[in-house]
Amino acid sequence: MQIKLIAIGKTDNKNLQSLIEDYQKRLSHYIKFEFEIIPDLKKVKHLSEEQQKEKEGELILSKTQNSDILILLDENGKQMDSVAFSTYLQKHMNSGIKTLIFVIGGPYGFSEEVYKRANGKLGLSKMTFSHQMVRLFFIEQLYRGFTILKNEPYHHR
After folding, report:
1. Does the global pTM surpass 0.70?
2. Counting C-beta atoms within 10 Å of the first and last residue's C-beta, which end of the chain has fewer, N or C?
3. Higher pLDDT, residue 68 or 156
4. What is the rounded CA–CA span in Å between residue 154 and residue 157?
5. What is d(CA 146, CA 157) in angstroms, rounded to the nearest whole number?
6. Using an 8 Å Cβ cutoff, are 1 and 98 in contact?
7. How confident is the model at residue 10 (pLDDT cuts 50, 70, 90)?
C-alpha cells in the first residue's frame, strides 16, 4: 500500500519544512509515502469562498483515482488517539487497497464534490491549527502509528 498526503499551498516556514522532511524520511522506512502539494490558486481576490473551494476541489479530485481511498482531514472528522490510529492504518493495509490518500484542504475547507467523493473524515483535534502545522502533526502521527505497529519505543504507553 502507498500513503499519499495532498495539501493546498506550500509550506513557507523553513523550520516546519525541515521537520516535515525529517518525518517523511523516517516514514519511508515503513511505507511508500508521497506528499503532494497543490499550488495556491492565483487571483483568489475575485473568487468567493465557495468558488475557491470548487477550484481547489477540482484540483484535489484530479489527483485521485476511483480505486483510491480518500480520507479528508476535517475538523468534524472522527478523532482517535495514536494507538487507535495505528489500528486504523493496519485495517487499511489489510484491506488490500493500493493507495490511501489523506487530504488537507484550503483555508475554507472542501467543496461539496470532494465531500461526496471522500471515503471518510478524520479530525486531528477540536482545536484549530494552521494548515502548515497540520502537515507536520499528521506526518508525525503517521510515523508514530507505524512505530506503534512495529512495537518500537517511540510511543510510550
Report:
1. yes
2. C
3. 68
4. 10
5. 15
6. yes
7. confident
* Side chain identity, residue 106: G
Tell me the three-class secondary structure of the chain, residue by residue: CEEEEEEECCCCCHHHHHHHHHHHHHHCCCCEEEEEEECCCCCHHHCCHHHHHHHHHHHHHHCCCCCCEEEEEEEEEECCCHHHHHHHHHHHHHCCCCEEEEEECECCECCHHHHHHCCEEECCCCCCCCHHHHHHHHHHHHHHHHHHHCCCCCCCC
Beta bridge partners of 83: none
Mean pLDDT of the 49-55 span: 93
- The reported pLDDT for the residue numbered 130 is 87
Contact (CB, 8 A) for 138 and 102: yes
Q: How far apart are CA 109 and CA 49, in angstroms?
A: 9
What CA–CA distance (Å, rounded) separates 36 from 22? Answer: 16
